[in-house]
Amino acid sequence: MARSIVSSNILAVLFLPLIAIMRTDACIFYEQSCHISSKDSYQSYPDLSHTRGNGTVGPETCLKVLTELDKNLANTVIDERRRKEELESHYIEILSPIYKVIPSPGRGLGAFAITPIPRGTKIIIEEPLVSVELPKIVPGQGYRIVDMVNDLEFSFENLSVEEQEQYLDLHEHRFPSEQDQSKLLTIFRSNAYNTGNNRVGLFPRIARINHSCKPNCGNYWSEQMGHRVIFAAVDIEEGEELTVSYIPLLKPASERKSRLGQYGFTCDCIACQSRESDHTRIKISKLFDSLENIPDVVTKKAAARTKTLVDLIEEEGLTDYLARAYRLAASYNQRLGYWLEAKKWALLELEMHQLAENDSHDAINTMDLINSLDDSLSNS
């Protein structure tokens, strides 16, 4: 029987403000905070993430894990492509771990590369350990997340003891009003991500990745595959901490710090210490605002501004926003009849989408644009 630690003294009602719950690109619900834990470090063995220490996994264990995984996948309603992708991901991570979870100065635990990780590498592919329906919004007040408690209790009771330990090992941040709140709820709220279809889920391995306002990893929810993907958005050096963004990044450092305060930590990344970075991000935000309502008739000057937007984003290292900027550059050049230039930008957009998933909805839309541009080129 799985053990339960659910508090019986649950607040009758808990409202959370509607402050910045959705992330711009990956739609994070209450993005995870820094992860405080007293546990020892461990390597990135996906199905063995409960294993502590830095030892290697022997071939017999690998075979056992992968055979069991293949058997489980064969009994689920998934297509062969997804089955192959899941197996490849686990095989690579078990035999050749590329990161480990160890203490991160001032940030609890963090995930650190133990080998150079090339851009585009899929670092973690993880299905939610627990997934529950997003609570209703009370007008003027926010999400009534206490309504999730019953669902969380039920889901928790159906986990194995090992899975329950993974859940309870995660960081929780409590507000002053939450001292008597359910531990399951506060852990979930501190770490959960959107999983599509009005649901939110908990991803224990992904939850170990800390925040940066200049992240080196992308974070993508695959609706069609039912898993979240963490991928290297840039080349990552050995020893470098893996980071994602929990919040929209085109705000001044003071606003970002205020947003992150709800997770119980203060970001001290390099971007938060730079006034020049603040000015650049505000300029990027204003360019997006002015360019995204594309007029029927565009000018060369407007198209040039899309190039300025791309340059600023690349200089600032905000890879989460590149696909969006590339699409604008492609669209403005398409309106001007500059088919080759438009295709150049569309191909860059496609590359960004395919870092996360080759045939995502966004990738397919971009491929449709490229095909349209090819037709225009052949007819010109």
UniProtKB/TrEMBL annotation:
Signal sequence extent: 1-26
Pfam family, one: SET
SET domain segment(s): 85-247
Entry keyword set: Signal
Matches recorded under Gene3D superfamilies: SET domain
Top-rank lineage group of the source organism: Eukaryota
Name this protein carries in UniProt: SET domain-containing protein
